[in-house]
Amino acid sequence: MGYELVVDFLPWSRAVSEAKNDASQYAGYFPEYYSDAVADEFVFSDPMGSGPLGLVENKNNPVTWQTLEDLQPLVVGVVQDYVNTDEFDARVAQGKQKVQAVTSDATNIKKVAGNRVPVAIIDANVFAYLLKSDPSLKPFSEHVQMNEKILENKKLYICFKNNDFGKEIAQIFNEGLKKVDVQAIMKQYQ
């Protein structure tokens, strides 16, 4: 679309904060799952892919569950400020689900491998990528796996600043997105 994309990798909470700050150099952040709370503050792009959100578990202590109520006795690892599923996040807000928040998915993988939490929420694609690319996770990779049941197949978006510039860039991004085969690109990287 004629623009040069520059991506910086920041801790999640900082990325969101920088994208909110009108004085910062950032036009937005990604990837994000849709939520009404975030939509009040940002302009969402059209979906740019999807990911199966599920639970990483210790191979020696797999968890059997059918509904989120089945997870209530467990402490679930989450990443601070991540949107999960509407139902899960509502249960946390209502005090019906105990969680331990950390700053990264890699930290949660290590905690599950070490039996410090029984499960943690993670996108299965992120889980596979981290195990392949993060050398610090190599000692833990044989101890963890994705639970068979997923929470939800979540669409992925870019969140742009909720101002005239952000709205303009979102429109340009959405036009460009129509010109590519998102599913083919996702398959190439999976």
UniProtKB/TrEMBL annotation:
Concerning PANTHER family, the annotation shows: ABC TRANSPORTER SUBSTRATE-BINDING PROTEIN, MEMBRANE-BOUND LYTIC MUREIN TRANSGLYCOSYLASE F
Family (UniProt): Belongs to the bacterial solute-binding protein 3 family.
Q: What is this protein called?
A: Succinate dehydrogenase
